[in-house]
Write a structure and sequence with these properties.
With 225 residues, the chain is α+β, with helices and mostly antiparallel strands. The chain is built from eight helices and six strands. 45% of the residues lie in helices and 19% in strands. Helix 5 runs antiparallel to helix 8 and helix 6 crosses helix 7. The longest helix is centred in the last third of the chain and has 19 residues.
Length: 225
Amino acid sequence: MRLNADATDGVVAEVNCETDFVARTPEFQALVDTVTADLLAAPSTEDPQALAAADGAVGQKVAEKIAKTGENMAVTRAARLTGEGLVGSYLHLGGKIGVLVEIQGVPAAARASDAVQTLVRELAMQIAAASPSYATRDEVPASVIEQEKNIYRAQMENSGKPANVIEKIVEGKLGSYYGVAVLPDQPSIRDPKTTVTQVIAEAGKALGAPLRVSRFVRFKVGESA
């Protein structure tokens, strides 16, 4: 994982090897540093996953390392967040979980402030711990929402309640789904009585600017893409 100097660009990559022993060696750690540095140095228009593939520029460097050491290594996944927002990062469990998060609306003068750095870290830790699937409700596919609604309707089909009442209950239950799958709707890991939306709003009020999470990436070692 690596960020550029002004935290507007960040990359995360999952680099795997065969044993934990190899993963702890300076040589492997140096390879990880090389992978993330090369991904960040590449033009932002380049697909990081393609660069990290076996036939990509970064993947070929990994292949050279394999040829020298005899160890089987691979860049399983790679992602990049770059734009006008502030990008933060967080590594959990000694690198077993990596998170990039992009926040929009942070005033330029406040980007390096303790308050902003605390917010970024808290949001990244939230993503690492609570594993949301989406940054906003709008990102949830209509098919997923309908599938959830059908589950709730099936639970109510023998309730004897009128259809319009059932639909209101279904909409209410959908809020519970958002509370698990959508980052801003989740209870804060710092204070479960507070939602992430409230945490962000509180920080934005202190800064005098509306803030929002636009994107995030969460990689867990060994988890399928």
